[in-house]
Specification:
about 300 residues; Metallo-beta-lactamase, Chain A; six-stranded mixed sheet; 10 helices; 14 strands; sulfur dioxygenase activity; transit peptide
Length: about 300
């Protein structure tokens, strides 16, 4: 319509649009970084909390030689995370799922990565891990899980342990409460935390089976996760509504369960009345042996 009515040629129209945009920019005194932030919708509302955008994560993750992928398994709504040193190609896989083993190994091969550790944030109740089967298919791969999980693995981890891959590493923070053996894995620059089921986006892991304890979970999240830097990105093991990432600052402010007092939190958790995970009876025994129970 504009082109039809305009007396200008297409190249002149483009120039006019650019000029108009430049004038708007000048008029509103936006700087280049401002424009970049706005164009990605990076600020969450206009409020007291100045939360950086999700794109923050991919930018940071690529600029310092860290290769990072978030992958999704739709039946259990589980996130699997691949992290690798872009130079040495050493890689770590977090919470891989049996159903997506071929997808994960294909990507690892395509990227030419050397997968050294496959780690579970806890003994999952809703899906079977692929770590055991993966060990059969990847020479030298080691499985890892918390020493408090009761599960077998090559590496048993606890507070302060490090999982290294090239120049990068993940540090273990014990965050029990959903299960005894729940861990949060924090990147060496504290920009990313893989919280398993301890902290979900605007939620948290349930506490009604597998040694669950609301008080322990509340203390874990407040002492071990909410003490991380405000901009630290939260990558959970699951999301059931399509969210992919959050930040410590966001969860400290908006998490509907963890912003409450301990007493209120305990009451909420004891009254969730959620149905049991459909696969709990096969998943837990299988995951106690790296998912190899009946494979
Ligand atoms: N419907 C799913 C199980 C959903 C579920 O119970 N999720 C767990 C994490 S997996 S152990 C959880 O803690 N949820 C917390 C919540 O508030 O939803 C299935 O059948 O697998
Ligand atoms: Fe879980």
């Amino acid at each position: 319509m504009f082109a039809f009515l305009s007396p200008l040629k297409p190249t002149q129209q483009a120039l006019a649009v650019t000029l108009r945009l430049w004038r708007v920019t000048e008029a509103t005194r936006l700087t280049a970084p401002d424009l970049r932030r706005f164009s990605f919708g990076s600020r969450v509302g206009v409020g007291p909390l100045d939360v950086p955008s999700r794109r923050f994560c991919s930018r940071r993750a690529t600029t310092d030689g860290l290769l990072f992928r978030q992958m999704f398994e739709s039946e259990s709504s589980t996130y699997t995370y691949l992290l690798a040193d872009a130079e040495t190609k050493d890689a770590v896989l977090i919470d891989p799922v049996l159903e997506t083993i071929d997808r994960d190994l294909k990507l690892i091969n395509e990227l030419g990565l050397n997968l050294t550790v496959a780690v579970n944030t806890h003994c999952h109740a809703d899906h079977i891990t692929s770590t055991g089967l993966m060990k059969k298919r990847v020479v030298g791969l080691k499985s890892a899980i918390s020493k408090f999980s009761g599960a077998s693995a090559d590496i048993h981890l606890s507070e302060g342990d490090k999982i290294s891959f090239g120049k990068h590493y993940l540090t273990v923070r014990d965050t029990p409460g959903h299960t005894d053996g729940c861990m949060t894995l924090v990147s060496n620059d504290q920009r990313m935390a893989f919280t398993g089921d301890a902290l979900l986006i605007r939620g948290c892991g349930r506490t009604d089976f597998q040694q669950g304890c609301p008080k322990r979970l509340y203390e874990s999240v407040h002492q071990k996760i909410f003490t991380l830097p405000e901009h630290c990105l939260i990558y959970p093991a699951h999301d059931y509504t399509g969210r992919m990432v959050s930040t410590v600052g966001e969860e400290r402010m908006f998490n509907p369960r963890l912003t409450k007092s301990l007493e209120e939190f305990v009451k909420i958790m004891n009254n969730l009345n959620l149905p049991k995970p459909a696969k709990i009876d096969i998943s837990v025994p299988a995951n106690l042996v790296c998912g190899l129970h009946e494979v």
